[in-house]
Structure formats: structure tokens, C-alpha cells
Amino acid sequence: MMEDLFENDILGHIGTQKYLCTITWRNGQFLMDEPENVGGKDLGMDPFSTLLASLAGCTLSTLRMYIDRKEWIIPEINISLNLYQETIDGELATTVRRNIFFSEEISTEQKDRLLIIADKCPISKLLKGKITINTSL
User: Fold this and answer.
1) What is the pLDDT of residues 89-120, one digit of tens each?
2) Domain parsing of the chain, residue ranges
3) Contact 31, 23 (CB under 8 A)
4) Does CATH place domain 47-128 in 1.10.3720.10?
5) b or e along 92-124 (b: 16 or more beta carbons within 10 Å of the residue's beta carbon)?
6) Mapping DSSP to helix (H, G, I), strand (E, B) and coil, where does residue 134 land?
7) pLDDT band at 1 (very low <50, low <70, confident <90, very high)
């Protein structure tokens, strides 16, 4: 049997308030909710935004580690993400748009290398890999 990545499970709870979830992680809690246009109160990030936030944080951290190791002078890294879904041949296909930009010009060689490194972040690998969700009640 494979060992869990986290020592403690990520926990979620929802009461009777529509769509407002409390998520507990090793160091605290945060709220997840749905936008008002679908019945929530927009008190926290929705699940799609949370997924993209995971990819953003992982990408930025991975790039920072690489840039620092190379001793390149790139003081700021910025990222914007969005996604869209479409049905192709009866299958749901999801495309994530990830744009990375910097506070100053970087060389073409640096850009080429950092594009490769962005795809090596663990969340990128996870999202591009085979995922199995084992659900129990």
C-alpha cells in the first residue's frame, strides 16, 4: 500500500448554510464557497479557483527555487490562470491557461528553461497525470 502524502488528512465540513465549507489543513482553516450567482455567498474561493490557486502557488515556488539556484536576478514572478471546459467527442476536456510574467525582461534562454521548469512543478505533474479517486462512505 502506498503511503499518504500528508501526515494528517485534509478535512472538510459543511452545515446547512448553502455551499459554505470549512476546510481544515495541518496549520489552520479556510472557507470555500460558491459565487452568489449559483446560490452561495462568495465567502471563500470556489473549488475551481482553489484548484487554480494550487497550481499558481506550486508553479511560483518551483520557479523561485530554480531561479535562486541559478542565481539569476529575477526579483518578481507573476502568474495568471484560468480554465475552460468543452465537450470533444463526448468527453469533457479541460484546458488550463497559465501565463507567467516577470517584473523585468529576461533572456530567451531563461524563458525557454523556465517554461520547462513550470511544467515540472508537482501540481502540474499531478494534473497532467493519471488520477484515481477512491471514494468511500
Assistant:
1) 999 999 999 999 998 899 999 999 999 999 99
2) 1-44, 47-128
3) yes
4) no
5) eeeeeebebebeeebeeeeeebbeebbeebebb
6) coil
7) low
